[in-house]
Amino acid sequence: MSRHDIRILDITVLRGPNRWSYKSAIEALVDIGDLEECPSNTLPGFVERLTAWLPGLYKHECSYEAPGGFVRRLEEGTWVGHILEHVTLEIQTRIGHPVGFGRARSTATVGVYHVVVRIAQEDLTRACLLKARELILAAIHDEPFDLPGTLAELRALADEKTLGPTTATIVEAARAARIPVAPLEHGNLVLFGFGARQRRIWTAETDRTSAIAESIAQDKDLAKEMLVRYGIPVPEGRIVRKVDPTWEAAQDLGLPVVIKPAEGSRGVAVSLALSTYEEVASAFKLSQTIQNAVIVERFIEGTEYRLLVVDNRVVAATGAVEFTVTGNGRYSLRALVAATVGGDDADLWMADTVADHPTFKLALLRQGVELDAVLPAGKTVTLPRAAKMGEDVLAQVHPDTLDMARLAVRVVGLDIAGVDIVAKDISQPLTAQDGAVIEVNAGPSLPTHLRTPGDAANEAGTAIVRHLFPEGETGRIPIIGITGCSDTNSVAGMLGFLLHLHGQSVGVACGSGTFLGQRCIRRGDGANWTAGQRVLINRTVNAAVLETSPASLLREGLPYDRCQVGVVTAVSVPAALNRYGINEPAQMAHVLRTQIDVVLGDGVAVLNADDPLVLAMAEHADGEVMLYARDGGNLAVAESLTRGARAVFLEGDALVFATGDQRHRHLLAPCVNAGDCLPAAAAAWALEIPFDLIVGAIIGYPSALVDLATPAAG
């Protein structure tokens, strides 16, 4: 008997809105071979083995739109392409990166499927897909599969590739506010918005964060000196560089003491409540792994609190919680911490985020326990005050303490900061209880203030987003997106010229190249995702005209999430697109419809009324629909005008802008190409550009600027 196999024929990374999803996704072309004849209910023991490994599959609703729906499909019989989609989604969930969207669709070739899964991170989702294939085959053939090892490997990849929790928190808040987000490939640098309205963050630091202020915050001794001058209470301390002077300083200050690096952040290598020489020496060595200079300071009795200050406003306050874990003789300390944090094995990744803190590790060392060792029954381990295990106390903070936190941040000069305070009672003034400001940190960790990991509605992330984009601002510039199977390159060039005459600093990416104003910065095909992104991240651009070829839509997606104006010119089926499974005009229309799907609610969809398949896209537009046609007698145009809509068409040598029964006629030169000027004129009108300027630009359009004979590739 031959062995079943699943072959991944191709993987396409769709980085923007595409025919499957508004968001980035991986599209795999999958050949399931003879498994096409073996639905899941015909594979002995398969469903039981699969659900035993991945019990989270019981939560998948699938087509029944209720938990358990997918397992029901498995029991009734479904195909491996569909199963691959769900297993990939579940593996991403198990490693702490749920995405919630997938599709599996058959192709014209029997046994070959499109399997589409939304991206958590490109490399990570690809790896999850490949591991899902291995797991399914193991379940089919009743073979062992190292699920814990696989998940650990994928979590390590996630730690390396995905955004850190602080950056992810701000990104989620920005997306919830419908602000465009463009993570770059390097570290946690993220761009919000487009062109001249773009803003940038790096973790919880912004393009408004002062480099001088950040340096002051990192130099703990200097920061304390400045705070003292403004009457802010801080613990007395000294800088030391050797162990014996550290112990002498500790005795002079009075035991217990705190030891930490002279320059650091986020509590790394900070050791609390040290009372013996051995503890001081061990903590000193830990701090010197970060920096040679070490601070020893008086330990302040009380609970540690982290106040988050954004733009001179305290937006969150969290009190650290000390918690205990008691062993049962069966589970490791790591698993018990996971149960304390989240409640089930799927949340093991959360335990890792708590356990990687140096203070946590030092606490385990003091108590003689190891994180991955089974904790003996009845043995209780006290875990340190961990900000990630904190409780919300914002409503309890005394007004004087709120004022003091804001003042401390202003003294240092930061726009966003975490202010660490120790107090016995946060509801009372600090000075009345020997409380103190311990540190002011640049780039504070936002998970400190989250009640639920990944909560997009958290106040911390939202406050930072609104600091960058006040209410009503979205970071968007006017984007005119153009696609179709004819005239798109010349329409893009003409629109770019028109916006340039209108005084815009316009970027154009089209089949002839990439342009800033009238300057070509890159020759060759620019009707693609890469060229579009190149325009949108340019901070000099305040309007963008971006052509996307049908081939680029299929292999990359659009280079933006939404646009102000979307133009579709015509539908046909280029032979080069057959390899994407596009063989019929209706299939091509579905792909091109993506351009209309992303038009903003206050935007305009510009459609060719002479092409029935383009015209049919009107029902999918969220905003206004403006038709254009070569003849005002076009039935669709006439009908739209009776409803008071806008339309553009020709009457002899005149270009007509029509609204209801109103007509604005402007003569054109006989040599003007209607295929170019009609969609360009309609898009310009959608941007409220004056008629005279539109017509003048069309007549005077210098075709030499763009080689209109060069079509967009592919």
Description:
The protein has 714 residues and is of the alpha+beta class. The strands form five sheets. The protein has an eleven-stranded mixed β-sheet, with helices on both faces. The radius of gyration is 31 Å and the shape is flat. Helix 6 packs across helix 15 (459-468), helix 11 (333-341) packs across helix 12 (348-355) and helix 23 packs antiparallel against helix 24 (691-699). The longest helix has 19 residues, at 122-140. The chain folds into four domains: 7-161, no CATH class; 163-204 and 449-464, no CATH class; 209-235 and 300-325 and 379-444, D-amino Acid Aminotransferase, Chain A, domain 1; 479-705, Mur-like, catalytic domain (UDP-N-acetylmuramoyl-L-alanine:D-glutamate ligase, 3-Layer(aba) Sandwich), CATH 3.40.1190.
Task: Give Rg in angstroms.
Answer: 31 Å
Describe the sheet with the most strands: 11 strands, mixed
* Average of the residue pLDDT scores: 89
Distance between the termini: 44 Å
Number of strands: 28
Strand numbers in spatial order across the main sheet: 21-20-19-22-18-23-24-25-26-27-28
Beta percentage is 15-25%
Notable features of this structure?
714 residues, alpha+beta, D-amino Acid Aminotransferase, Chain A, domain 1, 4 domains, 11-stranded mixed beta sheet, 5-stranded antiparallel beta sheet, 28 strands
